Amino acid sequence: MSLLSVTDNDSVSLIYLLYLALTMRIDILSVVPELLRSPFSHSILKRAINNGIAEIHIHNPRDFSADKHKKVDDYMYGGGAGLVMTCQPIADCIEFLKSQREYDEIIYMTPDGEQLNQGIVNGYSIKKNILILCGHYKGIDQRIRDIYITHEISIGDYVLSGGELGAAVLTDAILRVIPGAINNEESALTDSFQDDLLAPPVYTRPSNFRGHEVPKVLISGDFPKIEKWREEQSIKRTKERRPDLLKKTGD
Ligand code: ADE
Fold first, then answer.
1. How far is the centre of ligand 1, averaged over its atoms, from the C-alpha of 163 (Å)?
2. What confidence tens digit (pLDDT) does each residue in 148-184 have?
3. Exposed, middle or buried: residue 213 (CB in 10 Å: 0-12, 13-18, 19+)?
4. 158 Cα nearest atom in ligand 1
5. Is 204 exposed, middle or buried (0-12, 13-18, 19+ CB in 10 A)?
6. Is residue 86 located within the same domain as residue 131?
7. Which residue has the higher pLDDT, 14 or 175?
8. Which residues of 79-89 are buried (b: 16+ CB within 10 A; e: fewer)?
9. DSSP string spanning 181-248?
10. For position 84, which CATH number holds?
11. What is the pTM of this model?
């Protein structure tokens, strides 16, 4: 196919190839898929998906269960309260997806994983295919972790009822840093943490709200001065609230 003289069919294929090359695909495995639908149906994430920046596919391991009652959990070996997600439905679901494409990462959401941060998110944002597995009940059989999982992620030192909210947090954070997912006014590059600094305070109209004035510099029209003020405020806020971030960069 020549790039110089494309027929209608050629250009359609070219656009499709470009779409395939540029679109990130995230597959999420969950036994409670309803928990995941709403976060991707609104606002920035919905637009990113509609614009072809990313595809999100949700799968229920229960659909792969060989059990006649579609069971996905069982009692813990050795005794103990709570059920554990069994190997077979998850393994068959992952194997099925792996037979369709290669995954750059197979992530398990778990409170004992590596704590999520902007650096990890940025790394994921340049991958092509990511699979995220959400745990439930007391978690998943360790053998699934040993066989398939390439990275385990926690969204904080607290225990959620399942990995779904964590998977939604992770997916949101990834999508917003993919170029084109959000427009200039919402630029992800000025987000807190992108340069290990917290974002400066922001203001909008009116300039005087019940006697509380917007800092004068922001309405001065002097953009270099505004830039300098924002940088100073970022550093001040980071020193006050997250001095550990400054130590990381050696400031
Ligand atoms: N599943 C349960 N708690 C979690 C957490 N803190 N982070 C990620 N996944 C989880």
1. 5
2. 999 999 999 999 999 999 999 999 999 999 988 877 6
3. exposed
4. 6
5. exposed
6. yes
7. 175
8. eeeebbbbebb
9. SS-GGG-GGGSTTTTSSPPPP---S-SEETTEEPPGGGGS--HHHHHHHHHHHHHHHHHHH-HHHHHH
10. 3.40.1280.10
11. 0.88
Domain hosting 199: range is 192-249
**Residue carrying structure tokens 């997912």:** 181
Cis before 61? omega within 30: no
Examine the domain organization and report whether 85 and 25 are in the same domain: yes
For ligand 1, whether the C-beta of 89 sits within 6 Å is: no
Q: Do 202 and 166 belong to one domain?
A: no
For ligand 1, the distance from its centroid to the CA atom of residue 56, given in whole angstroms, is: 20
**By CB neighbour count within 10 A (0-12 exposed, 13-18 middle, 19+ buried), where does 152 fall?**
middle
pLDDT band at 19 (very low <50, low <70, confident <90, very high): low
pLDDT per position as a tens digit, 67-107: 999 999 999 999 999 999 999 999 999 999 999 999 999 99
The secondary structure of residue 53, as a DSSP letter, is S
Report the CATH number that the domain containing residue 235 is assigned in CATH: 1.10.1270.20
Paired with 73 in beta bridges are 85
* Cα–ligand 1 centroid distance for 19 (angstroms): 33
- Give me the phi and psi of 178, to 5 degrees please: -75, 125
